[in-house]
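If you are new to this repository, start here. Below is one unmodified record pulled from the training split, so you can see the exact layout before writing a loader.
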Amino acid sequence: MTQGPVIATLHNMSDVWESYRSELDGVEDRVRKNLDSSVTLVNTVAAHILSGGGKRVRPLLLLLSARLCGYTGAEHHQLGSIVEFIHTATLLHDDVVDDADLRRGRRTARKVWGNQISILVGDYLYTKAMCKVVEFQSQGINEVLAEACKKMAEGEVLQLYYNGNPSMPEIDYIKIVEHKTAGLIAAACRMGAILAEASEPQQDALFRFGQYLGIAFQVADDTLDYIANGESLGKTIGQDLRQGKATLPLLHLLQQCSEQDRQMIKDRMETRTLSTTDLERILSLMANFGSITYAMDRARAYITAAKDELDCFEDSTARRALSVAADYMITRDR
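And here is the target side for that same chain:
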């Protein structure tokens, strides 16, 4: 099994995607084969979101972590598909919770088939993933994946608890991000190391790498909600605020702005009303108080911490690819 391209050829994320395309094609093949429900609608709904333009970041990080630790087999294809099933299940559920109409520029499953179908298909994908993961007969992998799923559920509940509440402490925002997004990414990295029978210190380092990277990924994504091109992002700018979600740029702004502006923002969050004029005012305030810069600086700090965790590994193609992938998390525009 090839270990990938020559290190010097990996300059950006496009190089990484292209160089590991055949490996990711193996994951795609397992994703398709695992969609084998006897209920056709289950397969149709799942395929709708699985084919919606997702980059397969988590399977990529899993396979790179495995390769970094010397793995030469092909079981990461199946394990990567399992991780993608769980991620997809969370998206189906999140879209119901958020009343989302668009994801990556396409109508969400809930918009096409309704909330009940979306929830049940999400449940199916969770269950299917767990049925497949036990076939690895690895207690370590089972424990890591189960813990990640538990954390994702806790993170979602904590986010709902604070929904519409702009007084959320920044530490709780990071906890939500760590549980909802970083948990599965960190688990994917550790599972790649477990598959390669890496040492505990190596497993721990890759878990922390994934955790820091995942936090940075979500902080950057939350910041894009205020600055990205709406068409590229695949959702309406300011959507988090319209849904009552206080993310890092807004939390920073609320600590810096006047009491009058703070009350205006709190009112819009509580009532779920946000006019174009309101949004323009908030974006102007964020620019004035450096809220976007603050959030992106925090994301960059997490990426630096993530890349530091790779120092215990020898230089290799996989290590370079992981470093490039880390940088991509805060430079992407969608």
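Two things worth knowing about this chain: DSSP finds 17 helices and two strands in the chain. The two ends are 32 Å apart (CA to CA).
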